[in-house]
Fold this sequence. Notes:
Elements: E1 14-15, H1 22-28, E2 30-35, H2 42-46, E3 56-61, E4 65-66, E5 75-76, H3 91-109, E6 118-123, H4 125-136, E7 143-147, H5 159-165, E8 168-174, H6 182-195, E9 197-203, H7 212-225
Parallel strand pairs: 2-3, 2-6, 6-7, 7-8, 8-9
Antiparallel strand pairs: 1-3, 4-5
Amino acid sequence: MNPTLLPVDDAATIWSVPARDVESALAARALLVVMHGYGSNERDLAALFPSLPSGVVAASLRAPIPVPVAPGRGWAWFPVTDPQNAGSPDPAIADAAARGVLRWLESTQARVRTAGPVGLLGFSQGGVMVTHLLRHSPESFACGVNLSGFSVAGLVAGDEALEQIRPPVFWGRGEADPVITAAAVVRTEAFLPGHTTLTSRLYPGVGHGISGKELADVSAFLTRHLRR
């Protein structure tokens, strides 16, 4: 039986500000929730912090599922049992992971008297989580950045509300990405334009990674759409 909630380990979260300053920073600045890809960990995308706009506080989360090939070092938002089918995760497990992030967010926002706007940024599986979180709770987020990710198949309860709200979403991917399947790309191309205010970018010569040009585009997008 699949779990209904996969909790996020708050003790593993890496913040872009010192721990003692988190509450005061969240009271004055927007929050950006950052989510890594399959087999990686919270330290990976924390390396992007210096390239993010100064007006945000970033929190890099650790995914809840340990990856067997990298015990203690690699984590996932949902399992990948067949690499050829990595673009079609079990919707129930993706739902459980999204609920875990939403619970973490609720607990984090409770730490400050007046919580500011919240944005999402994720790479690969983390990018999938960006889209899935918007579908679960579209009113909770000011914008989303999906890097080399896709959307999960099937319906989510918040899809209709998302279609009405249409938050700004940046979807960037490498033209030479060998990881994200064509079917997952087609599914996402069908979903995002009708449910979000989409900025889509395809980067020539880039594989499954984040180029300097893409990172600059992301920073500009967040500066425009995520502010206190």
